[in-house]
């Protein structure tokens, strides 16, 4: 791959609902891409942060039970584990060392990531690790739809992956983030 490609921080979350102001993360997967190559991955299932609302319908999507959640790591432990992981790749104090946030419908996941940081007392969130120039295959698909080069019945990740022959175990964050990156590479011709 070309060295022209900068750092991309691929993120996918599984959550207890759709509102980052009240729901929590229960699985976080990330890929650190540098120079077009994935150099490291992160994947952890854990309990939602304290006082997070839990919608049963969201748990049903991921096949998670309340008993599953009770046996997982605490959110606080997961948060600090993720901070250690991301800190291996990005110097939060170096303005030139930031990743491009990336993912399928990336805004959703990065809003949850920010809310998760706030829930753990970090008033700055994760803005010290990435810029805000999101790389999102969903946005590319929307452009392709608008110009008439693609028309899918819906633009869920699973539907887009099926269209392009990409294997995915939908609603598992690690599978989703890998599929999103593969889809992105196909769409940009890389």
Topology record:
Elements lengths: L7 E8 L9 E10 L2 E9 L10 H7 L3 H5 L4 H13 L12 E3 L3 H14 L17 H10 L10 H8 L8 H15 L3
Parallel strand pairs: 1-4
Antiparallel strand pairs: 1-2, 2-3
Helix pairs in contact: 6-7
Mind explaining what this structure looks like?
The chain has a domain at 8-135: Ribonuclease H-like superfamily/Ribonuclease H (Nucleotidyltransferase, domain 5), CATH 3.30.420. The protein has helices at residues 56-62, 66-70, 75-87, 106-119, 137-146, 157-164, 173-187; strands at 8-15, 25-34, 37-45, 100-102. By secondary structure, the protein is an alpha+beta fold. Helix 6 packs across helix 7 (173-187). Strands 3-2-1-4 form a four-stranded mixed beta sheet, sandwiched between helices. The mean pLDDT is 96. The termini are close together. The protein has seven helices and four strands. 38% of the residues lie in helices and 16% in strands.
Features:
190 residues, globular, alpha+beta, 4-stranded mixed β-sheet
Question: Can I get a quick summary?
Answer:
38% of the residues lie in helices and 16% in strands.
């Amino acid at each position: 791959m070309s060295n022209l490609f900068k750092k991309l921080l691929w993120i996918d979350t599984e959550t207890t609902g759709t509102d980052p102001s009240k729901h929590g993360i229960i699985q976080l997967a990330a890929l650190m891409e540098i120079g077009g190559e994935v150099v490291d991955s992160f994947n952890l299932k854990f309990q939602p942060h304290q006082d997070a609302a839990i919608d049963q319908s969201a748990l049903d999507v991921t096949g998670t039970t309340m008993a599953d959640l009770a046996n997982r790591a605490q959110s606080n432990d997961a948060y600090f584990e993720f901070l250690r992981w991301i800190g291996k790749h990005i110097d939060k104090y170096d303005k030139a060392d930031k990743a491009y946030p990336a993912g399928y419908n990336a805004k959703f996941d990065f809003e949850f990531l920010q809310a998760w940081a706030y829930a753990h007392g970090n008033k700055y969130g994760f803005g010290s690790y990435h810029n805000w120039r999101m790389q999102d295959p969903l946005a590319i698909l929307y452009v392709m739809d608008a110009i008439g080069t693609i028309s899918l019945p819906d633009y869920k990740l699973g539907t887009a992956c099926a269209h392009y022959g990409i294997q995915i175990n939908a609603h598992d964050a690690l599978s989703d983030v890998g599929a999103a990156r593969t889809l992105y590479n196909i769409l940009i011709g890389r």
